Here is the input.
Amino acid sequence: MANFRRIGVLTSGGDAPGMNAVVRAVVRTALDKGVEVVGIYNGYQGMIDDDMKLLTSKDVSHIINRGGTFLYSARCDEFRYEEGMQKAIANCKKHNIDGVIAIGGDGTFRGATDLSNRGLPTIGIPGSIDNDVTASDYCIGFDTAMNTVVEMCDRLRDTCESHARCNVVEVMGRTAGHIALRAGIASDASAICINEIPFDEAACIRSIKEERDNGKRSFIVVVAEGNGDYAEQLTKRIEEQTGVESRFVRLGHVQRGGIPTLEDRFIATQMGSYAVECLLEGKSNVVICKNGNAIVDYDINYAQTIDRMYKGKLSDEDIAALEPSVRAEMQAFCQMRKDQLHALYQIALEVAK
Here is the structure.
């Protein structure tokens, strides 16, 4: 086991319900093993600004049920440059920090790699409501965000039913359709539009007409935000072509807030505890993932390459440069993720009657 006296923990990027639960698990697990924990405020910016505080068990009491992140979060352009990184590392040395656990998305993981490559062991934990870290089945905050969307759609359904309307609801997810797809199925949406699969608008219009003719009064259509202004345009066309009064609703950042669900608290606790174990075992530059029922760790570079491959961000030259067996393994992993998404979308089509 590595000789760690003190570790740092930070949250970075977009906030997600459950981040506080991760920090709590990190602090409590580390203290149980005789290791102190320094809270780094405002992500990598706080590391540069020396905005840090030694955390006690009491500091993380009664935060597991709080949304957002009590360590706060901030974008940090300065950390992208060597001067900023060296300033951050110097402040960590000043506080005797031997390793760091960073909670966030792909940008957070790039920062973790930068620190690891410069001699400060760092481990990443996926915190993102978008659930768009390809290497992991699950990101902290995803379940709470989906439940928020379902609750909002249920509320919209009430007023749609009263006035015989259609609401086209735009949900978050960046370029990923996971929130839209799962929350749409759970909200009895008439149609779901995500980036990853071509959307059949004609079938959507036809379905709403048929349902209206059969006596249905309320309609919900869920659209992932990565489609630009498509949701607003679709709203107009639905009303024009079906005669059903239609309204556009953008749920926005309400999806980031709120009390974390049991799932987010539980998995956050598992990941936070596991991250401490990994760090004390001497591991660095890994990301903690949930696959199936297991909490595992992957090399961050491996995880980020899979992520770029899945999202079509690798060039043919990049792919060809990969070692053949690794390339085949990554391609199979990406195909599995695509198959999972298509299977869920097929269910959505089957039940949207």
Remarks:
- The two ends are 57 Å apart (CA to CA).
- The chain is about 45% helix and 15% strand.
- Residues 144-256 form a domain with the Rossmann fold fold (CATH 3.40.50.460).
